[in-house]
Structure formats: C-alpha cells, structure tokens
C-alpha cells in the first residue's frame, strides 16, 4: 500500500480522539445519547479544524450496530465500510465539482431509495457554499422535510456565502481554531508515535505556522520528517520552511527601539541575502512587537502569549524602559509599511523606509508628559486664566489726578468701599455708580477709588459748596462716560470675533451642511461672500438662480438652525443677491447684464453644441466693447480676403 500522510493516518476515528472543539463534540455526543440528532447538520470553520472528520464520525455513530453510548465501535460491518470508504449508504459529494442543479436532481433521485445495508442513508456535501443558487433552491424542500432514513451533513469554510434559507434548515456547529498549546501537545504525541525526536522549539514553530489548523501542521510535520529523518531541530525547521529565527526578529526589533538605524539596516540586508521573505519578516516583526506590548500591559495580557517562562521574563524586562505610547506608535508605523509592501514591487525598500521612520519613534513625547509640562509651567493657575483678554478700544483721555500725599487722604467710610473696576458691572447698573460708592470719588488708572485730590484738601482746608457740587457733577459725568464707552465697545469686538470665526470656518460649515442636506451644501458653494452685521449672517449670491431654493422659508429656517448649531452664536441667516437696481434691463432679452451670462450658458443651442462636440463652456463675454472688438476683427479678416474679378 502507498504511504499515507499524517493528515490521513492520524484522522480521528471516534469523538475521544478529536482535539479541541469541546462544545461541538459534547453537543453531538448528547444528541446521540438522547436520540435528538437533527436531520441536517452544518459544520463551518477554517481549514483543517475537523469538519469532515466530525461528519464521518457522526455517520458511523448513526449506523453503528454495536454502539455503546455516543462512541462508534469501529468493529461492526458498517463502521469498517465507512473507515475503508466503501459504504454504499454514505455518499460524500464534492460541492465544488458537483455544484449544478443537475447534480442535485440526481442526488434527490437517490434519496428516495432505502439504505442497502445500513440503518440510514447519509449524504455529506463538502464545500457546500460552492453550489449555485438554482441548486440551493432545488434542495430546499428536500432539506426541510427529508425521508426518515436520510441525514444531511454539510461542511463549509465560508459560512456567509450560504443562503439564509439553507442556514435556517440546519443545525450549525462553528468549529474554532485550535490553540497553539493544543497543537503543540498533539504534534508531540504524533512525533513520539512515529519515533521521531523533535525539540520543543521546533514544535513551537510548527504550531505557530499551523495557525490553528491541524491539517496544515501535519503537512509541515510530514515535510520535516522527510528532510530530517529521526531527529528534528529548530534550525532544520527554519531551513525547510524558509523562516527567520526568532532571535533575528528580536534583534531587529531591539535595534529599532534603541534607534540604532545602522544595525537595523544591516540585519535587513543580511536576512535578505539569506533568502528570507521580506513580507514574512515584517509579519514576524509585527508579531514580536505585539508580544512586547502585551507584556507591557500587565501579567494578565502577558498570559495570552503562551511563551516559555524564561522568554516571558526576558520580554517583560525588555519592555520595561519603554512606555505604551512608543510601542503602539512603532506597531502602527510598521503595520502601515506592511500594507505598502504588499502592493510594492520592491518590498525590501518599503521595509527599509519603515525602519528609517521607526527610529524616530523614540523622539515622540507622550501626551500625558506634555500635559504635565504645561501644568508645571502654569502652576496652580487654571488654563482659562491664561487666555489673553479681547482687545477693546481705549477709553477717552481724561485729566490726570493731582498728586497727594497718603497721609492727607481722608479715610473712606465702610459704606463707601467698592469692588475693583476690573469686575464687570451688572447690566442694570451700566449707566450708574457702583453700589455704596461715593459720587464724590474718581477712578484712577489702577481701578481704586480715591476722593477728589486738590491743593485745598491736601492742606486740610474746606472747599466751597459750589466747588464741591461742580466736582461732583464732573466726576459723575466722567464715570458715566467711561462705563458707557466700555459697554458700547464690547458688542463690536464680539461681532468682530464672530465675523472672523465665520470667515475662517465657512468651508467647514458648508461641509457640515452638505453632510446634513447635500443639495443645500452644494448651493452654499456658489456663494460669492459672507459677512456678519449685528446679529445677521448675510450670504451673497450672484443671482437668484443660484439661491432660489435657499430663499424659501423652510429651507432658510433649516439653514439658520445649522448656523446656530455650528457657530454657537445667535445668527439669523439672510440671503442677498448681487444684482443691482442700477443695472438696466435689456428690452430685447428682458434681462440685466448680470443675468445675461447665466441665460446664455443655459441656452438650448449652446447645450446641444457642447453635447455634439464634447466640449466645455469657457468664458462668456457680453457688452458693446466686446462686440466692437469682434466687428473690428471681422473687418480685418474681410480685408485679407482676395478680391475676385467679375469677369
């Protein structure tokens, strides 16, 4: 007999031999014991996870004559025929090559007949997603209500390609990828059974390359056993599979973390000379960085790696000097570079450029550190207090107060004390004196209150009543004028701020409107200018043709709501047109000069000419000056024509 590969030789023959898939195996076993086996079972999952194997074991268990519990005996005639692939009542159909409606019709014809020697007639359709839509439709009724002696078992690697009508008629079992540890243990047992000595490091590489698929790992083991004979080492695995050693990948990653660009490029060049796949090298480097980042996050995430204890400790020590932001930035940078190398004719150049950019990651300052630096510079002062105040016009000049000695200043009574002038006044008191302030006081440049400073008061003399009343009126008038100037200077500054924000963010506002209502955003793109006057946002258009829809009441209300939401300011949107009343209407066309270009552009003859000649509309020029230039050009062209003799 010819040699059987490990994937066929080690195929499980009962549920106990199936590795992994505990949920699916336990459900099937309980269904057999309780006699609750559905008539249609669908196995899905990636390649090599045991879909067809479970279907065959289930078929043996259903037709086994000596079954004790859920396990088939593998000794009766039915089990032996199924193991040998000679059972007439078990038919395996390849959905990829028998995918048409005619093959399904023939299958339905065979369904009508009773099983020849077994208890049930079982149909296993592999890669069932390859069937055509017509074939699925032809199978629907039979799949929903099959005869009592028929069971269907489907297997697919692409569950999303099956119609919902098929999925609703089947009991689904989604098989998962096997963990690396499960594959490692299974491959070690098979190597011991084959009397082959293989190191743990080599088994780790094979389990990693299998990527959760048992069949892929068994194919790699077959290849290694043929190459190495009775002893397999890590170097043999790297040579046979064309892989890069984990040590080389780690050295490259350490060079990038230490910003040693020369060493990184030398390693890439040496690995390229050895024949390493550059794309695979990038993937291995990404995997190594992922492990380093998981080690940095803590012991719970590090447990996900399933690394040896000594290697795990080394990775944790290596990740200690670096922060999470640097490792994540390096990971994202290399991932973007790998995306470029997939479509590049020279993947090595893409990887080298990624190394050049990766060494700059060490210069990145984390956001938390920047915030801490700002806090240290600001001290205990909140960030809002550092914002510069809005510049307002200076108040009118006033006479400087006379200099007086401190000792001669009269004491302020308690009810005459006042807040500093920098504190804003309530709206109702903008034109009046502050509460509790003597009207006889004036405000100096520092904002403190002082009594009137005169030579007589400095000398201690009493002022005349008429002079006191005069100074009271002057002081009150000055205070009122200063307060009114501050009150009236604020709104223009605020309006100026809104105007600047509108001018700066107008394109973003148009994009925001376009996301809400596409036609309205496109219409706003035709605006000539925009300005703010008091509480109005005025949008200027060339003509009514560009803003006809916007002037409607409902649309204008929506546009105002968008402006309030975006600018967060009380603005009423107004639409204006550039057409001036001074433009005379042409009696022949009934249009103004500003309306003439748009009317000419939409003329049916112009549109027909553009469509016939596949042209584009350029400048439209009108007016007497342009017409005179055209007439002069025509006269020059006529003068250049030869004169023909009448004879």
Can you describe this structure?
This protein has 647 residues and is an alpha/beta fold. Among the domains are: 6-176, Rossmann fold; 181-241, Helicase, Ruva Protein, domain 3, CATH 1.10.8; 252-363, Zinc Finger, Delta Prime, domain 3, CATH 1.20.272.10. Helix content is 51%, strand content 8%. The strands form 4 sheets. The chain has a 5-stranded parallel β-sheet with strand order 2-3-4-1-5, covered by helices on one side. A 3-stranded mixed β-sheet has the order 10-11-12. Strands 6-7 form a two-stranded parallel ribbon. Helix 9 (200-210) packs parallel to helix 11 (234-241). The chain is extended, with a radius of gyration of 44 Å. It starts with 5 loop residues before the first helix and ends in an 8-residue tail after the last helix. The model is unreliable at 381-478 and 480-490 (pLDDT under 50).
Share of helical residues: 40-55%
Q: Please outline the major beta sheet.
A: 5 strands, parallel
Rg measurement, Å? 44 Å
Give the helix tally. 27
- Give the uncertain stretches in residue-range form: 381-478, 480-490
Give the terminus-to-terminus CA distance: 111 Å
Compact overview of the structure:
The protein has 647 residues and is of the alpha/beta class. The chain has helices spanning 6-9, 22-33, 51-63, 77-84, 101-111, 133-144, 164-167, 180-193, 200-210, 214-228, 234-241, 246-257, 261-273, 278-297, 299-302, 309-319, 324-342, 347-358, 367-378, 455-459, 465-516, 518-524, 544-547, 553-567, 596-601, 604-613, 624-639, and strands at 40-44, 90-94, 121-126, 150-156, 171-174, 197-198, 231-232, 442-443, 449-450, 529-533, 536-541, 572-577.
